[in-house]
Amino acid sequence: MAIAAAGGGGGGRFLARIVDSSEPSSSAAKSSASGPSMASRLCFHFPTRRYQSPCSLSMNGCEGDPAAPIGTTETRTFPAVATPGLAVDRLGSAVASLKARPSPGSGSGIIRLQVPIHEKVEAIDWLHSQRQLLPRCFFSGRNAGGNSDCFLEPSPVVGGNGNGNGNGNGRLGRRAEHRLVSVAGVGSAVFFRRIRPFSYEDWLSIKRFLSTSCPFIRAYGAIRFDARSNVSPEWEAFGSFYFIVPQVEFDELEESSMLAATIAWDDALSWTWERAINSLEATINQVSSLVMKLRKQVPKAFILSNNHVPGKNYWDLAVKRALQMINGDDSALIKVVLARSSRFLTATDIDPITWLACLQIEGENAYQFCLQPPNAPAFIGNTPEQLFHRTWLSISSEALAGTRARGESVASDLQIELDLLSSPKDHLEFTIVRESIRRKLETVCSGVVVEPRKAIRKLSRVQHLHAVLAGTLKSEDDEFDILSSLHPSPAVCGFPTEEARLLIAETEVFDRGMYAGPVGWFGGGESEFAVGIRSALVGKGLGALIYAGTGIVEGSNPSSEWDELEIKISQFMKLLKLEVPSRQELMT
C-alpha cells in the first residue's frame, strides 16, 4: 500500500494539445516518451551554487530492516541553564563525555540529550542564527497554545542506563508551561528518503526510531503531492518523501526553551556509534551560541522578472475544459483542484527563514513550516489546513474549502462571510471535501463526529468554510492507512480522486513537488500533519516559486478562480517589490 498518484494514463485526452501563446515556447519540456502522455512540464533549473555549511551526512533509515527493533532508545535530561549559549556548552560537554566512554553494547539505538533553558527564545530566531546549516527544518503549531499536548517533565540526570525505561526519560503530560510551540532543527541524526512512493515499510522504518517513552524524538518532513509524476530538478533533493530526526534541535515552549542533540546509529547500515558521535560533535561545533532577535519586517525584495505557469490564457482554457468534463454525462468528475506556480526572480537572494518569520505575523491560525535538504532550496509555507492530528488512538481532521477575501471593515467582513455561507457553489465544494474525509475516517475509525458541520475560519487575509472531524483509531498501526487515504483530499486534488488526479497530471505544466502534500511530523504516541498549501520554494539564484490552487466545480468562473489565486499568494506578495530597483539600490 502506498501514497501514490495515478500520474498519467488516459492517452492525453485533451489539454496536452492546448498551447498558451502568452508563455515562451522554450519554457516547457516534453515528458519522457516512455511515460504517459501528459501536458508539457516546465522545469526550473537551479544554479549550481552550493549552500553554506552543510552538516555531516548520516544514515538513510529506509535502507534498514523495518522489522528489526532498535537496541537502545533513551532521553537524557540535564539540569536547566539560563541561556542558549550555556545549553550549547552543556551539550558539547555531554557529547564529549559520551565519546570518551565505551560505545553502547547494542548495535543500534537513538539517544536524545536535552538541556532545558529558563529563557524563552523563539525557535525561528535560533534557526536563523545557525548560518544556514543544512539540512534544516522548522514546524510551528497552528494554535497559540502550542502544536502539541506533549511536554517534558524534566528529570535532571548526568547519565542514563540506556534501556529506554530508566533514568532521564521524559514523561508525557499537560503542564501548559512545557507545551511545544515551535521546533527548529539542523543536521540529521537519521534521515528517510526514497524516490519511489511512500509505503507502509517506509512508515515502519521511521517508526522504528520513535518511542512513546521518548516523546520529543520526532521525524519532521514532507511527502510529494503525486509520487508517480515526473520530478523536476528543483524538487529532486526531496525525493518522493523526505524526513529527518534533527541532530541538533531547539524547542520553543510556552514559557521556556530547550536545546537537544540526538545521536542515532545502526551497525547494519554501516553507521556505527563512532561515526554517529563524530558527526554529532562536528555539527555541535558549528552551532552558534549567540541567538539574535530576527526582525519580522524586512525590506521588500525587488522583482526583476515574474512568470505565471500557466499564464492567464492557458488557465482560462484549462478551467473551461474541466467544467466541460464536470458538466458532461460521460465523466464522473465533480471537482478538480487546478494549481499555478508563479516564479519571481529577485535582485537579491531571498532568505527563506526571514520570509517565514514575516509569514508568522499572519500565521496565528496557521501552521508554519520549513524543510530544506542539503544543497537544495527551502520549502516554506504558512498553511491553515490540517490533514490530521493523532494522539494515541484519538485522531482529528478538518475540511477546509471555499475562499473569500477579508473585508476592509467589520460590516463588509460580515457581509463577505454571509455571502460565503450562502454560496451554492462554495457549499457544493465544501460538502464534497467534508463528506469525503468523513467516509475515509469511518473506514479505520469508530465513532466519527463532525462538529461543527459548517462554519467560518477567518485568517488575516482570507476566510474559508470549515468543519472539524474526529474519531478513534482501532489500532495505532492504522496511522499509515489514515495518511494514505486522507492524502490527497478533495480540497487539494478533487473528487473522485483518481479522475481528478488524472486531469491534474494531464493539465498542469509544472511539478507540484511537495506543494499540497502532507507536511509535519511523526512521533511515538503522537503525530501531526498539515497540508502543504500557501507555500513556496525558495532558493539561491532562483528567487521564489510560489504555489496556489483553487477548486473547480459546477458554477466556477475562470476569471474568478484566477482572482482567488492572487488572494492566496498575497501573503508572499507583500514581501516583494514590483517596481524596478535603481542602480544605487542594487549596489546597497
What does this structure look like?
This protein is of the alpha+beta class and 588 residues long. Helices cover 24% and strands 29% of the residues. The protein is built from 13 helices and 29 strands. The strands form 4 sheets. Strands 5, 6, 7, 8, 13, 14, 15, 16, 17, 18, 24, 27, 28 and 29 form a 14-stranded mixed β-sheet that branches. Strands 4, 9, 11, 12, 19, 20, 21, 22, 23, 25 and 26 form an 11-stranded mixed β-sheet that branches. It has a two-stranded antiparallel ribbon with strand order 1-10. Helix 1 packs antiparallel against helix 4 (273-286) and helix 8 runs antiparallel to helix 9 (479-486). The chain is globular and about 70 Å long. The chain starts with a strand and ends with a helix.
